[in-house]
Amino acid sequence: MDVAPPAQLVARLRNVLGPDRVLTARSDLMAYECDGFTIEKNSPDVVVFPSSSEHVSDIVRVCNEFDVPFIPRGAGTSLAGGCLPVGGGVMIVLTRMKEILEINLRDRYAVVQPGVVNVWLTQALKETGYHYAPDPSSQGACTIGGNVATNSGGPHTLKYGVTVNHVLGLEAVLADGQIVRLGGPAEDAPGLDLVGAIVGSEGTLAIVTRVWVRITRNPQGYRTMLGIFESVEDATNAISEIIGAGIVPAALEMMDQGILVAVEEAFGFGFPLDAQAVLLIEVDGLEAGLDQQRDEIDRFCKQCGAREVRRAETVKERQQLWKARKQAFGAIGRLSSSYCTQDGVVPRTKLPQILASITEISQRYDLKVVNVFHAGDGNLHPILLFDERDQQQVARVLKASGEILEECLACGGSVTGEHGIGVEKIRFMERMFSADDLAVMRRLRDSFNPHNRLSPDKMLPTAGACGMEQTHPGRRAAL
Amino acid sequence: MTATPDELPLEETIDIRETADVATVIAGAFANNRPLYPIGGGTALAWGLPAVRPGIGLMLAGLNRVIDYPARDMTITVEAGITMQALAQQLATEGQQFPVDVPQAAEATLGGVVATNTNGPRRFGLGTVRDYVIGIHAVDGRGTPFQGGGRVVKNVAGYDFCKLLTGSLGTLGVITQLTLKLKPIAEQRTIVACAVSGWQTAEHLLQALIHSQTTPMAVELISGPTWSSLTEWPTGGPESVDGGLWLLAMLEGTEPEVRWMVNQLLGEWREQSIEQASELTPEQRSVVWPALVEFPAGEGPLVVRASVVPSATTQMMAAFREVDATCELQAHAGNGTVIARFGAFPAEGLSRTLVSRLQPLAAAADGNIVIMSNPGKSEMTPQSVWGGSDAPFQLMSAVKRNFDPKNLLNPGRFVYH
Q: What is the pTM of this model?
């Protein structure tokens, strides 16, 4: 819809939701023209705020009647353009469906609406001895519905798994408006694991309106350490040694010198500014085993050349270390006006190789790149710093990002570990998957979303589109 | 419950040696409208509705190579016909494991385990098959090879075929290759057991475990004549359950962790007035653990599996016991999984016992009951075998049609309408 949405469509939506839950003014729509991936923007034609599954179902039926595309959105923290309304249409914002409907400790699950912010659930569980394990760095803002759409991870996924490992069931509105329930609090529902198919489908198969999640027992204790290294290579060797010895830390995060400087400026934790890399390592579990694991990790780090291994001796010190890690992105503002966070994955043992490649690529394109990432999973987040107003720099960022992701593939990895394909990485789908693989993926999408009105031009490249050079990332699918 | 391929209406069998041959055979079958029955170790052929249409047996156990085992990355890529035992032996050389406990591991293939989503006692602490499959190759009903996932432990590119195909009973595609995420083998393992005097006490003990300081990998409730005679169990209070009832917790970890947990758990149980609990001896464990893993594959005129919310576990076990005083029961009680091996085929038939009585009870506990094996094949209907008439089978059927438009892969055996 390049022109104003049909008055009849808007009237029908207002009829379903009431007048104050339908936005159409240009100034109102601007807030929804992009998500955390800001390089690409396009405004929806209408934004609606349902507060029930029935609302969502009615909205979807109206959209089908008028043959307009529709796309769900949570908090809009996607870093890959997952919420970009490529073809305009109706954006269904689920943030008013924000109730925690049930917490059932005996059966170890909780039921939430999709707009519940990730950290709210763990806060609600505070006195119970349980928590919700997936903890993306944006957990203070991102919604569990959005986590389901992208199959989000976070630092503690190394031991506890990603979102899909914690989702037991879903209620969802299908592309035709039908409301279905898949799975639930009991395990092993007969038939296909459609829950597993929908988690991570980036809003292209269904709109999730209710989520049954597994809650996880809090560990009895933690040991949190900071290994300080003279070189990135030493740090990555230490990771290999630790995991190779059969220790699975709860989290194993790396920050390089570039990000350390920013974090130190922002928070003043006393990080050594001359260290080339630090590892934030946490083991958790039974007190009876933790000191032994801590001592082994200490030994491996030192064997690999660590200058020092600091220990968080108090709860407060532990919280500070995690604050530094989780707010590292916020500190980047001190380094640059704009940045592009990449999300690649390599087998853990290829970390030295990929980090060397990233350095080489950034030098060749004359860009500053800093790294803060989930090292234990081999999940990289190189952050490319640039000035949005300089078109030449933007072009160099795009090219360098592409080369970094190509290197991840060359190492046997993936172009996304937790942020999703969105629109940003559509062109890489053909690098990762064969034409047959993509054809089968399209057939799966067609089973759920036969008219492709739900989140069109996301995740899967349009069949038969020919290779065109990008001037903006991610636009190919929309051709 | 080992079934032989003879139980399937096979006109011929084809021994697959190379992955590429799977696509060739399926494409040929597609052209000639011939049904295909994928067969790994043949240990779970009793699953599902009886096959009716004659077709080709696709013998996949020869597809058993290890393709890549980068042990330091803690992943392995193998052909799907590798047996669980061969896989475990390979992984043990590096102190690693794929921690899914499967009966008949010498015959059962990894591909079959994934296709049937077979899981055992340690699902409580270590998760299920779907948590470990990170890459999959399969061939759809047209003969098109396709793949999902990759070889890295974290990956959200594209639709997750690993999940979709896990538990799909080979009806969307024939699995040819799998990449698994691995775990280190724990240094030590032990089992703590106690006799439980009744269903209600058992539920109280399970509730207490929710707040236990220990972290068991498996929480099992067992009852029935073969369990009674298996070993010298701890004795308990007055027994009110036919066939006895025992609660077992399997503990894994480093030596100090396991020692601490044994003492802690025994202490927690004493607070619940369980005085006679004890740690099993190594000799006992060498009998009890294999029995816990092999139980679902044991003989019986009917084997069913209930999956309910964990708080309904004891209620479900009691209901089975009421229907058949001699049935053998095993529950993965932390997960709400109850496996019942009947001593005698229900005299009133499946429709009156299973469909009208037991399945509604499971449904009331948010769950379902499916048949794992029924050698007599009587009363095998979509409802008795798969239960759950209000599940979204229509949507599943739409997926099936897109993967296998001629309905040639394991036709008539799964949930589709």
A: 0.95
